[in-house]
Specification:
The complex is a heterodimer of chains A (127) and B (200).
Chain A lengths: L6 H4 L10 H6 L5 E4 L17 H9 L4 E2 H8 L3 H14 L2 E4 L14 H14 L1
Antiparallel strand pairs in A: 1-2, 1-3
Chain B lengths: L17 E9 L5 H8 L5 E10 L12 E14 L4 E9 L5 H8 L4 E6 L8 H9 L4 E6 L9 H8 L7 E4 L4 H21 L4
Classes of the chains: A mainly alpha (127), B alpha/beta (200).
């Protein structure tokens, strides 16, 4: 990261995504983000949309699928900041977000066996 | 926008519908990033999170609110498992001061691989205790450095005070094939556990 980062300046003083509590839960490191193909190109880039430079960088980067963590790494921004900004863009309908394949539960016993099978098959093929 | 020097991001195929994650944790210098790098299809990426921690573990006699801001670096990698599903591997620092971040990181994680250096197992006690405390399903993977003494599994299990159901695996974190075997054995273990759990 270059120089001191001032997260609250970039996000306009917010430390939580603007959407709602559910969206905050949904935005995990492994949530996948891409520009909404249905959105009009350039629609969100004009001044009136109120997007700052970092919002625009996310839109430029996410022309295809990347995780929230990858967006943060490529742009050199802290994860918390990227969650807030992606939340803004999601609110505007500028990006679409695919939630994690595992709901944000912490009990291992709730992991679906079919999903674990899919992971296993994939890993064995790649080994 | 992007200059000629900046690397083009490795995008996921557009067919991917979602992702899962597994944490790779352990004490400083145990080889977390090496293991992530051996498994990842992309060059490992680094991101940072700023963490504001209440100074519960800091004795502050001045009466000031004990808040400290720490920056945590997370190295992570990615495996596209099939056209629909991707797996992210997050190297997660094991030091106690980073534990506040674990709750967020472990939410929705399949589990964690705890890397252990058999030459200094005592450095792993805290991490293993915290994994148990947080009820994060995990396996121990001994990173076999060239001069790693080889211990019988029961000796290691006893030294690490591990429950019988926690798998003890071993690999050279630099070796892709061995790293894959550890990952596969761990997910296999999760799968067996998931199947055996009675449905609520």
């Amino acid at each position: 990261m270059n120089g001191p980062v001032r997260p609250y300046v970039i996000t306009g003083g917010r430390s939580r995504p603007s959407r709602n509590v559910q969206a905050l839960e949904d935005l995990a490191l492994e949530s996948l983000v891409s520009v909404d193909p249905a959105a009009e190109p350039g629609e969100f880039l004009d001044e009136q949309a109120g997007l700052n430079r970092e919002h625009r960088r996310i839109l430029a980067l996410c022309r295809q699928l990347l995780s929230v963590a990858e967006v943060a790494a490529h742009l050199g921004l802290p994860l918390g900041v990227v969650k807030v900004l992606v939340g803004d863009l999601w609110d505007l309908g500028a990006v679409q977000v695919l939630p994690p394949a595992v709901p944000p539960v912490r009990q291992a016993e709730r992991l679906p066996a079919t999903l674990l099978e899919e992971v296993l098959v994939g890993l064995r093929q790649l080994r | 926008m992007a200059s000629a020097n900046s690397a083009e991001p490795d995008y996921l195929p557009s067919t991917v519908q979602g992702a899962v994650k597994i944490l790779v944790t352990g004490p400083f210098g145990v080889g977390k990033t090496t293991l992530v790098g051996s498994l990842s299809e992309i060059s490992p990426l680094r991101t940072e999170e700023t963490m504001t921690a209440a100074g519960a573990d800091v004795d502050d006699l001045t009466g000031r609110p004990g808040k400290t801001t720490t920056t945590v670096a997370l190295d992570f990698g990615r495996i596209t498992l099939n056209p629909r599903l991707a797996l992210y591997l997050f190297g997660t620092p094991g030091q106690q001061r980073f534990w506040p971040l674990w709750e967020d990181l472990s939410r929705g994680a399949l589990g964690a691989i705890a890397l252990v250096d058999a030459r200094r197992i005592e450095e792993s006690f805290d991490v293993l205790g915290q994994l148990e405390e947080q009820r994060i399903p995990f396996a121990v993977a001994v990173n076999t450095f060239p001069d790693t003494p080889s211990y019988p599994e029961d000796e290691l299990r006893s030294a690490l005070d591990l429950l019988p159901e926690v798998p003890i695996l071993a690999c050279d974190a630099r070796d892709r094939r061995g790293a894959y075997d550890v990952l596969i054995d761990f997910v296999d273990h999760l799968h067996a556990t998931a199947v055996l759990e009675p449905q609520p």
